[in-house]
Amino acid sequence: MLTQLRVGQLPARAADERLGLSHELLGQETTGVGGFAKALRTIPVMLDIAKRVEHLAPDAWIINFTNPAGIVTEAVSRYSSSNIVGLCNVPVTMHHTIADMLKLPYDKVTLRFAGLNHMVWVHEVIADGRDATAEVIEMLCDGEQLSMNNIKAIPWPPALLRALKAIPCPYHRYFWQTRTMLKDELTDAANGKGTRAEQVMKVEAELFELYANPQLDKKPEQLSQRGGSFYSEVALELIDALHNNLGKQMVVNTANNGAIQGLPDDAVIETNCVIDALGAHPLAFGKLPPLMNGLTQQVKDFERLTIEAAVHGDKQQALLALIANPLVADVNIAQALLDEVLESNKAWLPQFN
């Protein structure tokens, strides 16, 4: 069973983005207050779906694309008995991009991922049997771009990449280039371009108009403006591996079970896993380096507090979640954000009423 849903649809996403920007904060739908609000709206719906799966098809697998994918997958994993694996297109997009940078076929390049959804790092690049990690880092230092359609490709400072000795995912820009990202989003919101959700609504309106033509026989150019590249590819690979017990390695979101030291076993992480008929088995990684570990611990605390708030309608846990989020990190702003999130989303948040 594949789940990809957006409670409140794009207008709710746009409201989240505008709310963040009104406090001079990033409101992106998987990080900051946007990720928080979307998780509150989504978790109860996903748990309802999971309970139905428990009853109707207890051996079935839920393959979750719904953002914020890590938080949603962990909520279902911890608060239902349904089988679930979370899937994101960031790792596969990074894989394709790095293979292209090295001018090698996709299947000749192997990447070692470890972190959280939308906050994962590539720790090792093996290209045709050799370690090419340092080579790829130098290519990025020299101007090669690694980003997503929905994230501005702001270059990483070479000093950071060389010190890190790893490759951040595009979403790390929200955490490590916050001021630049915020400035760009405030400008877009003010000059008529709009927030990302508002841009997507315009694109979708154009797409639906094109799709109304039964003679359409080619992929619309507007589709490339969305951020879902390679989802179909990895979805079919995952279904195949689960159904046919392939023992295939893929990068998915699943319970940690000791793979990353220092995180709870039931915390959902994003890493390389072996996929067979019994599910996703994460490969042991060890401890993340200090800078990565500190950010991961903080964001995981935010995620787990958000889950508790969403499941139990707990306003105290919700406040702590926003304070824990590194893109908020201010108790007074956190309280104001919480009040506005609960008021503007009350139709979708009955657990708080």
TrEMBL record:
Protein name from the UniProt record:
6-phospho-beta-glucosidase
**Which gene specifies this protein's sequence?**
chbF_1
User: What cofactor is this protein dependent on?
Assistant: NAD(+)
Q: Does the keyword Ligase apply?
A: no
Q: Which UniProt keywords apply?
A: Cobalt, Glycosidase, Hydrolase, Iron, Manganese, Metal-binding, NAD, Nickel
Superkingdom of the source species: Bacteria
The processes (GO biological process) annotated in the record are: carbohydrate metabolic process
**Positions of transmembrane segments:** none
